[in-house]
Design goal:
alpha/beta; 6-stranded parallel sheet; 22 helices; oxidoreductase; ferric-chelate reductase (NADH) activity
């Protein structure tokens, strides 16, 4: 029964998504435009009216897809991960194009980009070809034919910006993420948001600048720029939308985001102004195509705000020699999360508004009482945290606690790394943090005796500038020495790039013992608040559906006053701004009702939370107490050189002999990812898929530790 439901959900999601894509391709055609106008006229006779039909056809399918995805996610962890990775399917996720301005592109990403470019091209062609067939000189504007053609091109660029805007918010959804169903995590999908945002601003600028240019040469610009029309396009609203979009885009440039994060953070909240004035400019009929992303983002933001309250407090801190800190936070023992998940943290003592994401290093199977994140103190906010912790350490009376607001954890729906026959883990610097969570998860799963497939061999390559960073591996030291687990086949290669070769005979054991002198500082929490994590997917799906019903009910209620029954609606009688305001009111009422339900559900779950203890079990075992050190001599340490990944993969290909599918998980600087991606691409040619199926096939799996 479970497998049947799982399959039906998957088929239904594929059908829904495919129908939504087909709808985008049909929308610019003359046949669809004519039929849809007839359908809207027929809908005016019933309570839904035209805007209710627009919501049900253009908006609700993607909301329904998100709801189906939540149900699918709720069922997925119950499904044992015993199936092997299919080689031909995995080939699509391997790097296809490397070292481009957009970074590394996989086959799936390249196909998605081609689909989007095809949609943009098709929409522009259909609209502009139809416009040119009906061109007549515009006497009120005193435009010639070429000027009118130019104006039409500028106008249709606005439609291309609308398509990008419709997709813009999906990559940054967290709890309601649709991309999560494809195995794409939040930190990886942020770059899709950047691409879409840049494209949207580009087309919007062409749209606005082209229109202003035509108005200027026709000496009509002063009349149009300041007008707030009762019907049709409101040009003043469009100008405010364009200016707001440009401000958000410029504040998002890397030079601003990295050096002035608070500017980027605060300017991004102008998205509310942007969306509201876009609605006033484009009208409600165009907005319903953009509304799915805004609707889901509003609910997602609501869930996150409720989830981050009340504040919790730090249990303990470990300070490493390389200015890296590890925070231990209390959590509800029922909270389970997948490896490579991230946690958003806000510390009100430092800033009441700034949230920062960090990779989780712990495993919910290994320790169900606490959750740990590792932080490299480099930026302004992390250095402030480092100084704050040192103030607590130096204080003779450590009675003050540090309050923390938490969102998450957010991660993949299931743990698929164990599906590979072999596993190659590559970490660079602080990029080792998500890899530590993978190792913890595999170790705890192997100890539990679950009937699951495990990689026959695991290899870890850690690249770091200084040898003191090896201390970051101390949390997995007891895993290496545990011969009863699957880690008897674990091999480590450590590359220290900026130091000469160490003293003769110094091996992994001595280095770990030397650099494992980190301080562990316990705190005394004053509250008993625990991290509960995101709401149950079934509850989120139910609340999302409830909000959709409330929105549609409010829309029908307002329609009763805007378009009374028995009277044909007149565009001149009802200003478009009033219709848009009623749409906004319906959305706010739906959010308010959803907030009440979400708060009640959260309150109930917080009362049922199981208190955590201070015992961290066997995590973080110190090396000084270890007796078995012989096994660490098998591992390698290299000084003064960067790893040659092409050569390493050639050697590993022989070591992984018999392992047909090898997952290559990489987290580190972009240059290191590109080198690994290039090596994987060279090893996985199309000819090898056919002629050498028994040899190792490397599946590239990049991870991100920064946004």
């Amino acid at each position: 029964m479970g497998k049947t439901m799982f399959l039906l959900l998957r088929i239904l999601m594929i059908i829904t998504f495919s129908a939504w894509i087909v709808l985008w391709f049909l929308k610019p055609t003359n046949g669809w435009t004519r039929k849809w106008k007839e359908f809207e006229d027929n809908m005016q006779r019933i309570i839904f009216k035209y805007n209710g039909a627009d919501f049900l056809v253009f908006t609700f399918p993607i909301i329904g897809l998100a709801m189906l995805g939540l149900v699918y996610t709720n069922l997925q962890p119950k499904r044992a991960s015993r199936s092997r990775v299919r080689r031909y399917a995995a080939a699509l996720s391997n790097p296809l194009i490397i070292r481009t301005p957009l970074g590394i592109l996989s086959g799936i990403e390249a196909l998605a980009m081609c689909l989007l470019l095809t949609l943009l091209g098709w929409t522009f062609y259909c609209r502009i070809s139809n416009d040119y067939k009906k061109l007549i000189p515009a006497k009120p504007l005193k435009l010639t034919i070429w000027q009118l053609k130019f104006l039409k091109i500028a106008t249709r660029c606005g439609l291309l910006a609308e398509i990008c805007l419709a997709l813009l918010l999906f990559p940054i959804l967290r709890g309601l993420s649709i991309l999560r169903l494809l195995g794409i995590q939040f930190e990886a999908s942020v770059r899709y948001h950047i691409w879409l945002g840049t494209s949207m601003v580009f087309f919007a600028t062409l749209h606005g600048a082209g229109t202003l240019f035509v108005w200027g040469i026709s000496h009509y610009i002063q009349n149009e720029m300041r007008m707030w029309q009762k019907q049709g396009r409101i040009y003043l609203a469009g100008e405010i939308t364009l200016i707001t979009g440009l401000i958000i885009w410029m504040s998002s440039l890397p030079v601003v985001r990295r050096k002035r994060f608070y500017v980027f953070y605060y300017m991004h909240h102008l998205y509310i102004v942007f969306l509201v004035f876009f609605l006033f400019h484009a009208g409600d009929r165009h907005f319903y195509m953009v509304f799915p992303g805004a609707f889901l983002f509003g609910l997602d933001k609501l869930f996150r705000i409720i989830q981050s309250r009340p504040l919790t407090q730090i249990l303990s801190v470990r300070i490493f020699p390389s200015k890296v800190i590890e925070l231990d936070l209390p959590k509800d023992s029922r909270l389970k999360y997948s490896p490579t998940s991230i946690l958003f943290i806000k510390i009100p003592t430092i800033s009441k508004f700034h949230w920062h994401p960090f990779s989780i290093t712990s495993s919910s199977n290994a320790n169900d009482q606490t959750i740990s994140v590792m932080i490299k103190c480099e930026g302004q906010w992390t250095n402030s945290l480092y100084d704050l912790l040192h103030q607590e350490i130096d204080s003779p009376h450590r009675t003050k606690c540090i309050d923390v607001a938490v969102e998450g954890p957010y991660g993949p729906a299931s743990f698929d790394f164990i599906r590979y026959d072999g596993l190659l883990l590559i970490g660079g610097g602080i990029g080792i943090t998500p890899i530590l969570s993978i190792l913890q998860e595999i170790a705890s799963s192997s100890r539990s005796g679950l009937q699951m497939r495990f990689p026959s061999e695991i290899q870890l390559i850690y690249v770091t500038k200084k040898s003191q960073d090896i201390s970051l591996l101390s949390s997995m030291s007891n895993l290496v020495l545990d011969h009863s687990s699957k880690f008897c086949n674990l091999k480590m290669r450590v590359f220290v790039t900026q130091e000469a070769k160490g003293s003769a005979g110094v091996g992994m054991t001595e280095l770990l013992r030397e650099f494992s002198t980190m301080q562990t500082i316990p705190f005394e929490p004053k509250t008993s608040s625990y991290i509960l994590g995101p709401e149950n997917p079934l509850w989120m799906a139910s609340i999302t559906g409830f909000a959709s019903v409330v929105f549609l009910a409010c829309l029908c209620f307002f329609n009763h006053f805007l378009f009374p029954a028995g009277k044909k609606p007149s565009k001149q009688r009802v200003p478009s701004t009033i219709v848009d305001v009623f749409l906004l009111c319906s959305f706010l009422i739906a959010l308010g009702c959803a907030a009440i339900v979400a708060i009640v559900v959260r309150w109930r779950n917080s009362r049922e939370a199981i208190p955590s203890t201070r015992d961290k079990g066997d995590q973080g075992e110190e090396f000084g107490s270890m007796e078995q050190t012989s096994t660490l001599k098998e591992h390698e340490i290299h000084y003064g050189a960067r790893p040659d990944f092409s050569d390493l993969l050639s050697k590993l290909e022989r070591e992984f002999e018999g392992s047909s599918n090898v997952g290559v998980v990489v987290c580190g600087p972009e240059s290191m990812k590109e080198s690994v991606a290039l090596a994987c691409q060279q090893k996985c040619q199309a000819l090898k898929l056919i002629t050498k199926k028994q040899q190792a096939f490397f599946v590239f799996q990049p991870l991100n530790f920064t946004l």
